[in-house]
């Protein structure tokens, strides 16, 4: 049996970075400074530190200044809210984008901290104003992982219009925004570029009664549950596009939510972990940071902010 086409997120992210580098260079020449991203990193979780490092390195590659602000694990909710507000007020070296790396320590009220990020600097797209705009079909900052998945589908030429997409996971940062994006009114008119909407979307979660029954009906199956090996070959419709968002550490190795080796023999397309959605999440963050910088300086109008 033939194997699924690999959805190579690393290759696509490199391609996106190349075009962003040119756009950032134009911005820097016109404005006289680089776009700037400030990342708040609380505590010393190795996974968070490595994600932040990857983001900073990618920013440097495209010419975006990334500043990491390390904060002690013991910081309170009030400390973090004040810190974010202080970063937002900084005028001499303004932050175009502000990101608080998740997860925050369990005793911190993460919602209060994320809500302190001004919506026009919220490059993660987690602020309720940005979530609301996305839900109304006029997104400003699309959460990076959801945008990355959509971009991956578009790049591979996987039609979403009229297809059935099943998303396993309903978090505010991945499952929910992706469902909104895939169900949004797309530009599926003849001669217009597809923007990856117009799908019929099912959202599954831990209370779904017949997960396998739902996933088997998917033309596009996105696994974002954080459960290694959750999606097995018998849960996949032959020829489906399977996108694995899951990032789990098992015996020191990074694995997704999809049983990759078995599912690749059934699916039409499959994304690997690592090297799939992860690099695209970072690329979309850079794209959002440039967008934030351009919006702040009025170099791009809000209505033109929507980009797939
Ligand atoms: P959350 O834990 O916030 O959400 C997980 C979702 O999966 C929940 O909706 C949960 O249901 C659902 N779920 C859990 N177990 C099952 C199950 N057995 N069957 C069906 N649904 C289930 O995780 P996130 O959304 O933050 O992240 C999901 C995964 O994606 C993680 O592995 C994370 O590391 C990864 N991730 C990867 C990124 C990347 O760049 N590649 C970026 C962000 C996240 P319920 O709501 O009922 O609890």
Task: Please tell me about this protein's structure.
This protein is of the alpha/beta class. The chain folds into 2 domains: 32-122, Leucine Dehydrogenase, chain A, domain 1 (Rossmann fold, 3-Layer(aba) Sandwich); 142-278, Rossmann fold (3-Layer(aba) Sandwich). The protein contains 10 helices and 11 strands. It has helices at residues 9-31, 46-62, 77-89, 110-115, 128-135, 144-155, 175-183, 211-215, 260-263, 277-296, and strands at residues 5-6, 36-42, 65-71, 97-100, 164-168, 200-204, 220-223, 241-244, 248-250, 253-255, 269-270. The chain is globular. Mean pLDDT is 94; it is low at 303-308. Residues 145, 168-171, 173-175, 204-208, 211, 224-227, 230, 245-248, 277-278, 281 line the site of NADPH dihydro-nicotinamide-adenine-dinucleotide phosphate.
């Amino acid at each position: 049996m033939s194997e699924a086409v690999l959805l190579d997120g690393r290759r696509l992210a490199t391609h996106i970075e190349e075009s962003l580098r040119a756009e950032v260079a134009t911005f820097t020449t016109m404005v006289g400074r680089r776009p700037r991203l400030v990342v708040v990193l609380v505590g010393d979780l190795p996974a968070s530190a490595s994600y932040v490092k990857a983001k900073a390195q990618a920013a440097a590659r495209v010419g975006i200044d990334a500043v990491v602000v390390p904060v002690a694990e013991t910081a309170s909710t009030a400390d973090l809210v004040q810190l974010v507000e202080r970063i937002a007020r900084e005028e001499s070296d303004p932050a175009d984008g502000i990101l608080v790396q998740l997860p925050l320590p369990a005793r911190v009220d993460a919602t209060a901290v994320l809500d302190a990020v001004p919506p026009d600097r919220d490059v993660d797209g987690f602020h309720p104003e940005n979530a609301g705009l996305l839900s109304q079909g006029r997104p400003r900052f699309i959460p990076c992982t959801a945008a990355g998945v959509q971009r991956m589908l578009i790049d591979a030429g996987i039609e979403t219009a009229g297809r059935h997409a099943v998303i396993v996971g309903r978090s505010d940062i991945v499952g929910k925004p992706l469902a909104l994006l895939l169900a949004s009114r797309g530009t599926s008119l003849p001669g217009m570029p597809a923007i990856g909407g117009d799908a019929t979307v099912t959202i599954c979660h831990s209370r779904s009664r017949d997960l396998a029954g739902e996933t088997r009906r998917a033309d596009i199956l996105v696994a974002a549950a954080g459960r290694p090996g959750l999606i097995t070959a018998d849960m996949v419709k032959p020829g489906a596009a399977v996108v694995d968002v899951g990032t789990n550490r098992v015996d020191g190795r990074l694995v997704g939510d999809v049983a990759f080796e078995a599912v690749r023999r059934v699916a039409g397309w499959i994304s690997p972990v690592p090297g799939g959605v992860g690099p695209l999440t970072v690329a979309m963050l850079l794209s959002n940071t440039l967008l934030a910088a351009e919006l702040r300086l009025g170099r791009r109008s809000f209505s033109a902010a929507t980009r797939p």
